[in-house]
Design goal:
- The complex is a heterodimer of chains A (203) and B (263).
- By secondary structure, chain A is mainly beta.
- Chain A folds into two domains: 75 residues, Cell-division inhibitor MinC, N-terminal domain (Transcription Regulator spoIIAA); 117 residues, 3 Solenoid (Pectate Lyase C-like).
- In chain A, 13% of the residues lie in helices and 34% in strands.
- Chain A has a six-stranded mixed beta sheet, with no helix packed on it. In chain A, strands 6-8-10-12-13 form a five-stranded mixed beta sheet, with no helix packed on it. In chain A, strands 1-2-3-4 form a four-stranded mixed beta sheet.
- In chain A, helix 1 packs parallel to helix 2.
- The longest helix of chain A is centred in the first third of the chain and has 14 residues.
- Chain A is elongated, with a radius of gyration of 20 Å.
- Chain B has 263 residues and is of the alpha/beta class.
- Chain B has one domain: P-loop containing nucleotide triphosphate hydrolases (Rossmann fold, 3-Layer(aba) Sandwich).
- Helices cover 42% and strands 16% of the residues of chain B.
- Chain B is built from twelve helices and eight strands.
- Chain B has an eight-stranded mixed beta sheet, sandwiched between helices.
- In chain B, helix 1 crosses helix 11 and helix 5 packs parallel to helix 6.
- Chain B is globular.
- The chains are: A mainly beta (203), B alpha/beta (263).
- The interface between A and B is medium-sized, with 13 and 12 residues.
């Protein structure tokens, strides 16, 4: 039988990867057999996440999953997009779609992604964005941002209001001056002659 | 089914317990049937603020562990007949209860009461997780300090990831004189960062300290500024549209004199 369901280790517990090419009932059947065959392996209370990228589930489907997992003592939880597992394969950077995050990142939340990241919201103090490519923030940036995290010196950081406490590009770190005047226009940070510079964005 | 509201903040000492006591008493003044749950196991305070410490026989942990019935642990307030308290245990810690049990407890209480208010402990660990698990609404208390606002932001993020959206904000302990001089974070600055609905602002008021020490929630006092602010918050929670209180600096004698003579 083909495996439509795979378990992967994740930071919070387990990650459930569901094939999106087959019907949901097949998935459920498949999952049940899998759980049945390895009851001992799944410790009670383990959190199981389903990354939104792999398969979008309806509310009923989520309930079905929750119920099925609960039988084996597992807790279902929808994976938050900010905890994207970094893919090992760096060669794919070029063709990667940017990650779009449509919410404000609050203190303690982080987005880690191998490609570029677009944030439609603010990045509050205490939040972090780490991207292999560029970072574009369509709000106010007050947190820590790291573009080109895997060595891309060409990476840039753009924000509607760039008030970041720290800007990192590739292996360079720039700290905000202690008495920062607050810009009211979009700015972009990039590396020039080995320094991080910030320029006004011309619209 | 009644509403289950959790009052939380992340940072300690911003006024969660005082807010719980006052909002609860405010609802009771309106004739609603209210129960306050102290979720701060091991560091209980709500009973002291309510002046009910010497009436505790059973507590939340006893209920959860089945040592007593829920009704036995509920303490009726000495002033308002429709107000009850479920106290926390003092000799145990936060791990004595789990979120599932709290959820069940809240559901049970919501059947008998119009409003269930949970006083959340400071921090983001087990105690916080327990306190928010049964709640359908959250109120975040903060003060106009950078650290308190930062923690409030973290809490909003954690609530979101638990599926609890649209929390409401109370800004506590505003000092009108300092705001006027520009020495204190202004309400707009806080709202800009947190970006959630403002439920109310509470001026810094010496009477809160007096009333807390006496074990009588301030909201019952008709003249204190903080009590008016709490009453407004309760009215807003019931759906009434009450304008925000004007934060006016306490004028000195001469400026009042000027006003009288219309300078």
């Amino acid at each position: 039988m083909r495996q439509y369901v795979r378990f992967k280790g994740s930071r919070n517990g387990l990650q459930l990867v569901l094939d999106d090419s087959v019907d949901f009932t097949v998935i459920l059947e498949n999952l049940k057999t899998k759980l049945e065959s390895a009851v001992v392996f799944f410790t009670e209370g383990t959190i199981v996440e389903v990354p939104a990228k792999a398969r979008v589930l309806t509310t009923e489907q989520q309930e079905d999953l929750t119920k099925l997992l609960a039988v084996y003592g597992l807790i279902f939880c929808e994976a938050v997009e900010e905890q994207q597992v970094i893919e090992e394969n760096k060669a794919e950077t070029e063709e990667l779609q940017p990650l779009f995050v449509a919410k404000t990142l609050r203190s303690g939340q982080e987005v880690v992604y191998i490609g570029s990241v677009v944030i439609d919201g603010d990045v509050n103090p205490g939040a972090e964005v780490i991207a292999g490519g560029d970072i574009i923030i369509r709000g106010t940036c007050r947190g820590v941002v790291h573009a080109g995290a895997y060595g891309n010196m060409e990476a840039t950081i753009t924000a509607n209001r760039l008030l970041a406490s720290q800007i990192r590009i590739a292996n360079l770190i720039a700290r905000a001056p202690d008495n920062l005047d607050q810009p009211e226009y979009p700015e972009i940070a990039r590396i020039q002659d080995g320094n991080v510079i910030i320029q006004t964005v011309e619209i | 089914m009644g509403d289950v509201i959790v009052i939380t903040s992340g940072k300690g000492g911003v006024g969660k317990t005082t807010t719980t006591a006052n909002i609860g008493t405010g609802f009771a003044l309106m004739g609603k049937k209210v129960v306050l749950i102290d979720a701060d196991i091991g560091l209980r305070n709500l009973d002291v603020v309510m002046g009910l410490e010497n009436r505790i026989v059973y507590d939340l942990v006893d209920v959860v562990e089945g040592n007593c019935r829920l009704k036995q642990a509920l303490i009726r307030d000495k002033r308002y007949d429709s107000l009850y308290l479920l106290p926390a245990a003092q000799t145990r810690d936060k791990n004595a209860v789990n979120p599932e049990q709290m959820k069940q407890l809240c559901t049970e209480l919501a059947q008998d009461f119009d409003i269930v208010i949970i006083d959340c402990p400071a921090g983001i660990e087990q105690g916080f997780k327990n306190a928010i698990s049964g709640a359908s609404q959250a109120i975040i208390v903060t003060t106009p300090e950078v650290s308190a606002v930062r923690d409030a932001d973290r809490i909003i993020g954690l609530l979101e990831s638990e599926g609890k959206h649209n929390p409401k904000l109370i800004i506590n302990r505003i000092r009108p004189n300092m705001v006027k001089k520009g020495d204190m974070m202004d309400i707009d600055d806080i709202i800009e960062i947190l970006a959630i609905d403002l439920l109310g602002i509470i001026p810094d008021d010496d009477y809160i300290i007096i009333s807390t020490n006496r074990g009588e929630p301030a909201v019952a006092n008709p003249v204190s500024a903080a009590s008016t602010a709490y009453k407004n918050i309760v009215r807003r929670l019931t759906g009434e549209n009450v304008p925000l209180m004007k934060i006016e600096a306490n004028d000195g004698f001469f400026s009042r004199l000027k006003k009288v003579f219309n300078f």
